[in-house]
Design goal:
Blueprint (H helix, E strand, L loop, with lengths): L2 E5 L5 H10 L3 E5 L3 H10 L2 E2 L3 H5 L4 E4 L4 H8 L14 E4 L5 H13 L3 E4 L2 E2 L2 H6 L2 E6 L2 H11 L3 E8 L3 H29 L4 H9 L6 H5 L22 H17 L5 H18 L7 H6 L1
Parallel strand pairs: 1-2, 1-4, 2-3, 4-5, 5-6, 8-9
Antiparallel strand pairs: 7-8
Helix pairs in contact: 1-2, 4-5, 8-11, 8-12, 11-12
The structure holds nicotinamide-adenine-dinucleotide.
Nicotinamide-adenine-dinucleotide binds next to helix 4 and helix 11.
């Protein structure tokens, strides 16, 4: 059993913290929203009046916050969390944020002798609740060994991607590719359908051929082909377009900073942004098919 401070109890952090309580850890939580704290108290956690109070004496500090500015604000500066911790605490930031901020926080922690990893997740709210998230970690090997012990109670695949910031880079690479193959899958299915093919039959053909990919295999964007996919449930998320646009923005920053010509990624971002601006931000990202069909 470990003493864990968990900061940020939203759609993802709430169920992740609950899983740590259920695994028998001594969990103290902090969020800006009282209702979120109450929910975790009901699940068996203690709550604190500040992040620093939650983190006092913790073996692990875990955060699940919206964006880089929240993570920098929580950890950096004279009144940031890092200034209150020492080498006995391992810090894991599971938020999806820009790689530059993740590296900055990771380096600040290293300079203070504190083990820190960026550990963004793949898998949405359902995977957070089921404890089946994938974690992509950036930081040193010794911290990764400690991180695995606690992340295993919230997920099933835990990868060491490389040094500080690498978890965020891995996540951005994956989601950029996901956006590209979802759009390509939608275009292929629509082209087949307009030429008289049954999208289900075409899906079977492509699944047995070289067009096979994850969107086709487990998340078919064409309504009615896959009973449990968001496409067959009015594109209820799932993984929201708003979050895909956020992740594509982070991917564009990394591509620009590293001089990568990611023409397909840029186009995917443009298409998803237009789809979002058309009022579909809260729908599942596989609903990009609706744009293709127009
Ligand atoms: P959310 O908006 O539901 O939750 C964020 C929580 O952080 C809120 O409860 C908010 O009150 C709290 N918060 C904000 N600033 C704070 C601060 N300074 N101190 C303490 N608490 C603070 O967001 P979410 O859906 O849980 O996502 C969290 C992160 O996980 C994001 O980076 C997101 O991109 C990533 N993510 C989300 C999903 C998903 O499907 N929702 C999937 C993968 C990754």
């Amino acid at each position: 059993m470990a003493k864990v401070a968990f900061i940020g109890l939203g759609n993802m952090g709430g169920p992740m913290a609950t899983n740590l309580v259920q695994a028998g850890h001594d969990v103290t939580v902090f969020d800006l929203v009282e209702a979120a704290l109450e929910q975790l108290r009901n699940a068996g956690a203690s709550s604190a009046a500040s992040a620093a109070q939650a983190a006092a004496g913790a073996d692990y500090v875990i955060s699940m916050l919206p964006a880089g500015r929240h993570v920098a604000g929580t950890y950096l500066g004279d009144d940031g969390l890092l200034a209150t911790l020492d080498g006995s605490t391992t810090v894991l930031d599971c938020s999806t944020i820009d790689a530059a901020t993740a590296r900055e926080v990771g380096e600040a922690a290293a300079n203070m002798g504190i083990g820190f990893m960026d550990a963004p997740v793949s898998g949405g709210v359902a995977a957070a609740a089921a404890g089946t998230l994938a974690f992509m970690c950036g930081g040193d090997a010794a911290t990764f060994e400690k991180a695995k012990l606690i992340l295993a109670d919230m997920g099933k695949n835990i990868f060491h991607a490389g040094p500080a910031g690498s978890g965020q880079v891995a996540k951005a690479c994956n989601n950029m590719l996901l956006a590209i193959h979802m759009i390509g899958t939608g275009e292929a299915l629509e082209m087949g359908a307009r030429n008289g093919l049954d999208p289900g039959v075409l899906s079977e053909i492509m699944l047995a051929s070289s067009g096979r990919n994850w969107s086709l295999e487990v998340y078919n964007p064409y309504p009615g082909v896959m009973e449990n996919a968001p496409a067959s449930n009015d594109y209820k998320p799932g993984f929201m377009v708003d979050l895909m646009v956020k992740d594509l923005g982070l991917a564009m920053e990394i591509a620009e900073q590293s001089g990568v010509d990611n023409a397909m990624g840029q186009l995917a971002r443009e298409l998803y942004t237009a789809h979002q601006q058309a009022g579909n931000g809260q729908l599942d990202f596989s609903g990009i098919l609706m744009r293709i069909q127009k």
